Amino acid sequence: MLRIVLALISVATVMGEGCCPPDAWEGFEGLLAGSVQNGRTHLTKGGLMLHLNNTGKIIAIEEDLFVDDHEIKLKVIQDYNRGTEYMIIDGKCTKKTLEPWKPKCIPDDAQVVQNTYFGAGSATMAVKTYSFIDKGLQVYATATVNGCVPIVEAISGTTAEGVSTVDVVEFSGITPGIKDPSVFNIPSICNSVDIPFQYVPSLSRLRRSVFH
What is this structure's pTM? Predict the structure, then answer.
C-alpha cells in the first residue's frame, strides 16, 4: 500500500476543495509507522478502533499496538470540551492539555493529486487523493468522493519533537454514528489524576492524522 500511495506523488497536482468525513463515525485503522529520534529507530504496527464525534468535539481511540516488538494496549480519550487528553494504560491514567479543537477534515487548500477508483467493472468506488502540509508534515490522504470516507493516509517528515517519521494507515469497517456513546466516558481513575502525559515517540502519531 505504501508503494501505491508514494506513486501518486509523481502525478501532476491541481488545486481542489477539501472535504469532511461524516460528522460522527467509527472505524478500524491498520497502522505501520517507522520513526527515528536521537539516532534510535522505532517500529510501530497494529490496529486502532476510532470513535469520533465532531459535533461533540470528542474522540476515543482503543489500540492494540506492537512498539519495537513490545505489545501495548491502551485507550486515548481526547475531550476538547475539557481541553484534556487522557491516556489509559495498564489501569493507570495520565493526561495532557489539548490544543484548541479543529474540524477533522481535509483542508480546502489541499491539492488533488489523483481522481481514481477502487474496484473493477460495475463494482467501483470513486476516490480522490489529496496532498497537503499539516503541522510541518507531508500528508497524502485518500477518501471517497461520495461522503469523504477515509481510505488510506501516508504521513512523513519531522515532528516538532524532532522525530523523523513515516506512517501509513489503512481505514476499514467505517460506519456513521456512534453505536455506544459510553466509549467517551472518562474512567474514574482519571478524575483526580494530576500526572503529566508521558511522551512516547512511537505513539505520537495519535495526534497527527488529519482524520482525527
Answer: 0.84
